Amino acid sequence: MMKKLLIALTTTLVLAPNVYANNFKDTDHAIDYRKSAFGLIAYNFGDMGAMLKGKKDFDAAVFASRATNVAALSKIPHEGFIAGSDKGDTDALAKIWTDKADFDSKMTQFQENAAKLAVAAPGSDLGQIKDAFGNTGQSCKGCHDVYKKD
Ligand code: ASC
Q1: Which residue's CA lies nearest to atom 10 of ligand 1?
Q2: Which residues of 109-138 are buried (b: 16+ CB within 10 A; e: fewer)?
Q3: How high is the pLDDT of residue 5?
Q4: Which of 7, 30, 32, 47 is most buried (CB neighbours < 10 A)?
Q5: How many CB atoms within 10 Å of residue 31?
Q6: Residue whose CA is closest, atom 11 of ligand 1?
């Protein structure tokens, strides 16, 4: 009896698809979740770019606040890349799931670069801020080039 229960439990744990490790109702929910985060990241990062490129006045406090936002938001999308969510209203390529380890490391790199940008942003070294911004943008682009439909 106990043994049967253990086998049933172990089998359930081992065979449970990825989708049960999170709270998503289905793949559409996961896609919506990650796209929401990317939209917020693009808004905050885009405004920082506009300031650095002189398209609007540089406001140090706003810039630093946006950098903090991007660093926090950078941790959100990864959870939404659940198995099967290449199908649906998404630009995510199926390659994400066949090269998952590389995708995961690119996502981690993005998070690290965003964290460094948030550290540099409140400082007065504009060169360092620009470098950190550039590295973060490269993380966005580097991943999009490989894993996002154009
Ligand atoms: C943005 C945005 C992206 C990245 C990328 C950086 O502001 O929406 O996808 O920066 O263009 O190269």
Answers
A1: 137
A2: bbbebbbbbbebbeeeeeeebeebbebbbe
A3: 56
A4: 30
A5: 22
A6: 141
